[in-house]
Amino acid sequence: MKTKSLTLFAFVVVSTLIAIFGWQWFTGEDKRLLQPGPLSYAHHQIELTCHSCHGDSFAGNAGIEQECKNCHASELKAMDDAHGQKKFSDPRNAAELAILDATKCLNCHQEHQPEFTRKMSVTQPVDYCVACHQEVFSERESHRNLAADTCTNAGCHNYHDASTLYENFLVAHLNEPAQLATTTRIARVIDHKPLLRADRMPTATEPLPAAMNAAHQQWQKSAHALGHANCADCHRDNDNWQVSIETCQGCHEGQVESFQQGHHGMRVAVGLPPLEVSMAKLPMHQDASDKVLNCHSCHQAHDYNTRKAEADACLGCHNDKHSKQWRASKHAELWQQNPDHGASCATCHMPRLVDKATGKISVEHNNSANLRPNDKMVKMVCMNCHGVEFALTALADPDQIDSNFSKAINASHSSMDFVRARQNEVSASSRPD
Ligand code: HEC
Ligand code: HEC
Ligand code: HEC
Ligand code: HEC
Ligand code: HEC
Ligand code: HEC
Ligand code: HEC
Ligand code: HEC
Ligand code: HEC
Ligand code: HEC
Question: Cα(351)–Cα(199) distance, rounded to whole angstroms?
Fold first, then answer.
């Protein structure tokens, strides 16, 4: 009898505890204990917002697929997804879908599975391309002896983004020199207007005269004075000097939007507080661990000197091998002499873009936009100064990345060799007998 009631008591206690903690897991702020495993590097920052992928009701895989598309469809469309849904709606490809349903993101990108998740959240084995492309071994002389796990070797093929790695493009850029004749990046000019008077000058009763004077002096030489953004445009409230990201957004909508699409700003996009350096998976300077990522992590009020933002600011936080090697590179040396030559961190990671419709030049603030697969950088950055084969070879070499491109190379890329051989094959077969 005694043991029976003890068991009953223990049962009641345990179930009450489970009910309380279970309820907290479901309703509390931090639901991470309910995850089957941690998220991939791509999404670790938004782990706290389960609903970003699962919706509010955990509606199953169809709901998750929709959330993937809400965040990624426009990016895949912009790169003209080489294996987009359209390709697979062609009935001739139905047999391939039976092997692997490629209309579903989750068949290749699962989450919470760190044991078998590869770079870019890919959860298929490396050799899965040949599930659909067996024919390539028989149809292409150059591919006959290749191993099935080499299709996506750096600079050969990508699954989605074939905007650089396709035959006609490579043919058009065969045999270019390593260094092109002109080697500068796109120029960015400020629209200088007549001298502007500050609308917030220090007064005798002002509580912060020294800070006011410093602000005024820096502002007067800045792009804001030249472009007519006055003190009151940022400081609307006389008692509070704090400036929010929404204030910048009023005039710099594109920069705020693209900032929120990359790893620096993605938390803000889902309503979480800004990224703190201490949350990073990449190596950072210890003494930067309490810094946060917002517009003023790289831009200093009030001088807004973009040269400081291009490298010094980055190196205040980043402390990995590649970043630390930059100062020793030719790119850094040349950039220090003339910022439109060589390459700063921003030249590669936050390149200047030209809007095709308006001709307006702006800086890409999504720091992840051209990072993976890294041949995205060829068109956006390297081709301003280097031949395509040189750039592809450098980007495919992990030692070049570790040394921040401070090693000489003998440029020859197997993709280009295949294209050269095929050009010869085609011209031989089209020659009249
Ligand atoms: C970046 C998107 C993403 C986020 C954010 C996310 N998940 Fe998931 N979750 C997935 C995907 C994808 C699957 C796998 C579905 C599959 O492969 O069947 C999954 C599966 C699960 C499963 C297995 C059961 C099921 O529904 O298939 C649980 C439980 C789960 N997630 C809990 C969580 C919790 C709790 C959080 C927040 C702490 C979270 N997830 C955040 C994408 C996400
Ligand atoms: C709330 C928006 C959001 C949702 C929902 C979301 N992602 Fe992402 N995803 C991002 C952001 C932001 C990044 C980081 C920026 C980047 O790497 O391009 C990212 C990165 C990625 C990457 C890696 C890109 C790289 O460069 O390494 C893949 C692959 C990816 N997401 C696929 C998915 C899939 C599949 C789903 C659905 C399970 C999903 N995402 C859901 C916002 C989202
Ligand atoms: C058949 C497999 C497969 C399917 C299905 C698939 N992906 Fe991918 N995805 C990959 C592979 C492999 C990569 C690695 C980079 C590459 O090869 O392009 C990748 C990379 C990515 C990237 C980052 C690379 C880039 O170029 O920006 C994003 C974002 C992404 N996938 C999103 C999605 C979304 C969203 C879906 C569903 C609409 C999806 N993927 C469906 C295989 C797949
Ligand atoms: C689910 C089946 C499937 C998988 C998996 C797949 N592909 Fe494809 N791929 C296709 C289809 C369908 C086309 C469209 C070409 C066509 O209509 O014949 C295509 C086209 C291509 C093309 C362009 C060929 C051309 O000249 O039009 C390349 C290159 C390619 N895939 C490479 C890859 C690589 C690399 C992988 C692995 C990362 C891969 N594919 C995985 C089905 C697949
Ligand atoms: C482009 C936006 C912008 C403009 C224009 C601007 N400021 Fe500021 N100002 C800031 C930011 C950002 C801060 C830092 C506030 C914070 O920490 O949130 C700041 C802070 C200040 C502070 C407080 C400094 C301290 O040390 O406490 C003063 C005073 C100030 N600004 C004066 C001015 C004056 C005077 C002008 C015009 C001559 C001006 N600002 C123009 C963005 C601006
Ligand atoms: C009232 C509009 C306005 C507001 C608000 C504003 N800016 Fe600007 N900003 C401008 C103008 C105009 C320029 C000069 C643009 C040009 O001609 O290219 C500029 C230029 C810049 C530049 C480039 C400086 C250079 O030397 O090239 C940076 C960086 C910048 N703003 C950051 C910010 C940040 C951060 C905020 C929020 C604290 C902010 N701005 C708020 C109007 C504004
Ligand atoms: C990771 C560092 C970094 C962060 C964070 C950052 N910027 Fe920038 N920004 C730069 C660099 C570097 C340049 C100049 C690059 C160049 O000259 O090519 C720049 C240039 C600009 C310019 C002038 C060029 C253009 O695109 O018109 C504006 C405006 C600007 N930033 C606004 C912002 C705003 C608003 C935010 C906050 C959402 C922000 N920046 C956050 C690094 C950063
Ligand atoms: C205030 C600190 C800080 C500054 C300043 C900063 N970063 Fe970062 N950066 C971070 C953190 C933290 C991450 C890690 C994000 C993560 O782990 O998800 C990151 C990530 C990155 C990544 C990897 C993104 C990805 O998708 O994997 C690149 C590239 C990068 N930063 C480049 C730069 C460049 C270039 C600059 C200067 C123009 C810069 N950063 C300035 C803190 C900073
Ligand atoms: C000539 C172009 C170039 C320059 C200059 C450059 N990078 Fe990179 N960076 C790259 C490439 C390419 C990658 C590798 C992408 C990949 O393949 O994963 C990379 C990767 C990174 C990463 C991600 C590392 C990781 O482990 O995921 C960070 C962070 C980064 N760079 C920061 C910086 C900083 C900070 C500077 C300046 C001090 C800088 N980079 C200068 C091209 C460049
Ligand atoms: C604005 C011009 C410019 C851009 C953009 C640029 N480079 Fe360079 N790069 C140069 C110049 C100039 C040199 C030095 C040539 C010399 O004097 O040997 C150089 C040198 C190099 C070297 C050889 C380094 C050495 O020490 O011999 C490599 C590798 C390299 N670049 C790769 C890249 C890659 C990859 C990209 C794109 C991610 C890129 N560069 C973008 C101008 C540029």
Answer: 34
**Does the beta carbon of 165 lie inside 6 Å of ligand 4?**
no
Residue 337: pLDDT band with limits 50, 70, 90: very high
Domain residue ranges in the chain: 35-151, 209-369
Q: Which residues pair with 363 in a beta bridge?
A: 352
109 lines ligand 3 (CB under 6 A): yes
Joined tokens for residue 373 = 């697969």
Nearest atom in ligand 2 to the alpha carbon of residue 41 is 27
Ligand index nearest the alpha carbon of residue 349? 8
Angle (CA) 159 163 164, round 5°: 100
What is the sign of the dihedral through the CA atoms of 333, 335, 341 and 345?
A: positive
Q: What pLDDT, on a 0 to 100 scale, did the predictor assign at position 28?
A: 59
**Contact (CB, 8 A) for 91 and 20:** no
Q: Is the CB of 67 under 6 A from ligand 2?
A: yes
Closest protein CA for atom 3 of ligand 4: 132
Q: Are 45 and 271 in contact (CB under 8 A)?
A: no
Residue nearest to atom 10 of ligand 10 (CA): 342
- From the CA of 345, the nearest ligand is 9
Whether the CB-CB separation of 351 and 370 falls below 8 Å is answered with: yes
Nearest in space to 121 (alpha carbons), one of 133, 131, 113: 113
Residue 93 Cβ < 6 Å to ligand 4: yes
pTM for the full predicted model: 0.96
Collapsing DSSP states into helix, strand and coil, what is residue 361? strand
